[in-house]
Write the structure tokens for this entry.
Amino acid sequence: MPRKTRLNRIAEIVTKAHESGRAVPTIVLPCKASPTGEIRLHRATEKSRFPGDVQVTDGRRDGNTWFGAINHRTGNMFVARETPAAITALLVEFNDDPAGVGARLGLSVGSCVFCNRALTTDESKGAGYGPKCAERFDLPWGKATAVADVAEDYVTTVIRPRRLLAERIVEELLLEDGHMRPWETAVDAVERILAGE
Ligand SMILES: [Zn+2]
């Protein structure tokens, strides 16, 4: 496993959240590979050794496990030696799609991963995070949220195939003269289509 991983999108959204007024933006991702069941990403303060970098830990207040740090300028993450591969993998996945992965993880625990508050409104439950976090962390809000994705998936995987099936059945049942096929052969024809033949 590489000891260096490029996570520039995470660096960007944490920096953006800081610039829009959160002193210490903190993202909490549920993760079974961490001893506490979560990984916590927070922006190092100005007083720290590497201000602005994103520190990745298991979130314990004292004696926490340090998984690594993301350079806020380059996005390069230095990964600590003992960090489980599953944690790096989750960070890469989150970096590739902070809104989508954040929403999925948020919905799985019922709270926003970007502020750790419970998802209460229908809007937030639909999106997987709240409108304020969307604004602060530069995430899509409105149509381009998790709900829209789920609806699109549903259309592609359920509605469209069903429609095609229905069209095939109608085609099979209608004879060229516009009459319906005799009942005795119609049932067999439909069953063949449903069986995928
Ligand atoms: Zn939030």
Observations:
- The pocket of zinc ion is lined by residues 112, 114-115, 117, 129-130, 133 (CB under 6 Å).
- The beta strands are 4-6, 26-30, 38-43, 54-57, 66-70, 76-79.
- Residues 146-173 form the longest helix (28 residues).
